[in-house]
Amino acid sequence: MPEIGMDLNRFILEEERKFPSATGSLSIALTSLETSVKIIASHVRMAGLAEIFGKAQKTNIQGEEVQKLDEFSNNVLVRVLSDSGQFYAIASEELDDVIYPEKGKDGKYIIAFDPLDGSTNIEVNISIGTIFSIYKRSKGTDADFMCGGTNQIAAGYAMYGSSSVFVYTTGMGLNGFTLDPSSGLFLLSHPSMRIPESGKIYSFNESNYPGWDDKTKKYLDTLKSSGYTQRFIGTMVADVHRTLLKGGVFAYPSDKKSKNGKLRILYEVFPMSMIVEESGGLAVDGKGDRILDIVPTEIHQRVPVFLGSRAEIEMFLSIQ
Ligand code: AFP
């Protein structure tokens, strides 16, 4: 068990030492993510003060309103990750097309991210976050991103809440770090995270109930009649973070208006599914198929998702 309080940088290096053949590329890649989220965290703290607050009066590829802090976060990630030289390609929820950074032409990795998840919560001072997912470069085209969730080599998120946390996995356990504002270091606070086998919370946007299919409606009815309570923040990072710590289920089902649900597979659903599975939980789509086995066909694809504790996902799977 790693030592509580260990600095994220040292943790990344100690993990690398477990693989004598490692070149250090993944460590540099992860450290560049750490740098990016520290910069974003400090700007999130300043949001109400630093004229960065407010809307940029544009819409992004998803037709959603882009806020200034989204643009800032996207720009920080693109710049810092490009400068690291480790990423051959970068796909962002905020950008129409994949970027191929000049400095990354020899990079072994590609990365997909949602720079600022939960952006509608910025103005009301509710937790927001950054989500990322790393793959190996193969052919060197956009198609490299369409290799399926099981090929992620690392996934993680940062949450900017009452404190800032950084949670990530490289497939060797899930670990969470909390930012110490006085030293500016992410310190290990949640080693070897395990999701509870079951919980008592369901996290759905229940206002979509009328548009759900019968199975989803029946599931929700069963949860309610079995004494579950509801929490829905509207920031996937925060809802999943709570689900990891307290157990239960987070879901964003399809509905009559959004046939594939709302959440994006590359930027949100794959990384969170890897994280939840790594902690001992399950992540499935509306048909009950494992999320990580899906092979997307386009970078901005959406997918319905049900993820969380084993007991609550098995309950969903058992409903006819
Ligand atoms: P924004 O980043 O546009 O706020 O969307 C957040 C999100 O993608 C995800 O984090 C939430 O779970 C989900 O949307 C909430 O969406 P609704 O409030 O529309 O149900």
Q: What is the gist of this entry?
A:
The chain has helices at 8-17, 25-45, 68-84, 214-225, 236-246, 265-278, 310-318, and strands at residues 55-59, 65-67, 87-92, 109-117, 128-136, 154-160, 164-169, 174-180, 185-190, 201-203, 229-230, 249-252, 282-284, 305-308. With 320 residues, the chain is α+β, with helices and mostly antiparallel strands.
Structural notes for this entry:
With 320 residues, the chain is α+β, with helices and mostly antiparallel strands. The chain folds into 2 domains: 183 residues, 2-Layer Sandwich (Fructose-1,6-Bisphosphatase, Chain A, domain 1), CATH 3.30.540; 118 residues, D-Maltodextrin-Binding Protein, domain 2 (3-Layer(aba) Sandwich), CATH 3.40.190. Helix content is 29%, strand content 23%. The protein contains 7 helices and 14 strands. Strands 3-4-5-6-7-8-9 form a 7-stranded mixed sheet, sandwiched between helices. β7 and β8 form a beta hairpin. α2 packs antiparallel against α3. The longest helix is centred in the first third of the chain and has 21 residues. It is globular. The N and C termini lie far apart (41 Å). The model has no long low-confidence stretch (mean pLDDT 94). It binds 1,6-di-O-phosphono-alpha-D-fructofuranose.
Number of strands: 14
Unreliable residue runs: none
CA distance, first residue to last residue: 41 Å
Q: Mind summarizing the main beta sheet? A: 7 strands, mixed
Structural class: alpha+beta
